[in-house]
Specification:
This protein is an alpha+beta fold. It contains 15 helices and 6 strands. It has a 6-stranded antiparallel β-sheet with strand order 1-3-4-2-5-6. Helix 7 runs antiparallel to helix 9. This is DUF1917-domain-containing protein. InterPro entries: Bles03, TIF_eIF4e-like. Belongs to the UPF0696 family.
């Protein structure tokens, strides 16, 4: 048979070198979001979609959530920083090269059980140290001593005043409680344990959709430094906890920026609706939850309070050098998803 040389790899079948370079450049410049923003409402597209038969079997909640267009990383971010996944060895974490829908198919949040009770996703463009950061043991020891001293003081007052109402005792301890709170936060800053997280509590039915949105945004470098979703509901609840981490609870500008991103994704409402809360990881490390015996407010910020704040620069936070994060803070201090918040 005659050799078809005109179809070999060296032919002009794909165009000359300049044509190939131009076409490859156009492919890289394609913006899927912009394309569908203009085309999804065209009558031909709608007509074709209406001809696609529905599946005969029941569609799972995860599958319903997977009909999304993936977010793309910011051009400047993608161009200046190579993506890195600190959770590459964690089988129940999102991996580089894996799309968010592929991740949810591989690790569905409603049916997956993990050894730590969480499913993880890291921001591959977040700044990170070369070595993991450990929890400051001296800080934890000192803070636990202060917490124990507070309980001793509370017990002493109750014993000396057996008829005193618990609410009166709580009010009398207000100065000590405020000092305790300040010591915890100031100590956390000195110990470089400043990460915190926004907490979402979607229902079980909404969890796949919400988690997919979070994974899309985090893996595109648009939201937080890391996120996780609990593999089981809270006790006596139909809600799953999703945490979205920021690197510094003192940087109110960044804390608000992450909240604004969640509002853009319709994960929280700027006005009205159910508020969400932000918690410093130092509190988690010290087992301070919503029903703690110290009378401390477990959350540091609420979305309602942050949205009500004027948008001013956080000079105290921005004047300090920004540390580069690792996964150490998250895994060394992670809390059980079954504990009360």
């Amino acid at each position: 048979m005659e050799q078809l040389d005109h179809l070999d790899d060296d032919s002009d079948f794909y165009g000359d070198e300049e044509t190939q370079r131009r076409l490859k450049r156009k492919v890289k410049e394609v913006d899927v979001h912009r394309y569908w923003a203009h085309h999804e409402h065209l009558i031909n597209v709608i007509a074709i979609n209406n001809t696609i038969p529905e599946k005969d079997r029941e569609i799972t909640l995860e599958e319903k959530a997977l009909n999304v267009i993936p977010l793309r990383p910011e051009p400047k971010m993608a161009a200046t920083q190579e993506p890195f996944n600190p959770l590459s060895r964690v089988g129940w974490a999102k991996q580089l090269g894996e799309t968010a829908p592929e991740f949810l198919r591989r690790v569905p949040p409603l049916t997956t059980l993990t050894s730590d009770g969480w499913i993880w996703c890291a921001n591959p463009y977040a700044r990170r140290d070369k070595k993991p950061e450990d929890v400051d043991a001296a800080y934890v020891t000192r803070m636990r001593q202060l917490l124990a001293a507070y309980i001793d003081k509370k017990t002493e007052i109750a014993q000396q005043n057996p008829t005193m109402a618990p609410g009166t005792i709580t009010r009398r301890l207000l100065p000590e409680r405020e000092r305790l709170k300040d010591d915890i936060y100031e100590g956390a800053k000195k110990a470089n344990m400043t990460c915190g997280k926004w907490m979402l509590f979607p229902t079980t039915a909404d969890t796949p959709k919400v988690w997919l949105q979070v994974v899309e945004a985090v893996s595109a470098g648009k939201l937080g430094v890391m996120a996780k979703v609990a593999t089981e509901c809270k006790q006596s609840s139909n809600e799953r906890l999703i945490c979205i981490y920021t690197e510094d609870f003192t940087n109110v500008v960044d804390v608000r920026r992450q909240l604004e991103t969640m509002a853009d994704l319709h994960l929280v409402q700027r006005q009205g609706g159910r508020p969400i809360y932000y918690k410093a990881d130092a509190y988690t490390c010290l087992d301070i939850y919503s029903d703690n015996p110290y009378g401390l407010k477990a959350s540091q910020y609420s979305s309602k309070d942050i949205f009500a704040m004027p948008e001013t620069k956080n000079k105290s936070a921005e004047s300090r050098p920004q540390k580069r994060l690792t996964d150490g803070e998250f895994f060394k201090t992670r809390e059980s998803p079954f504990k009360k918040r």
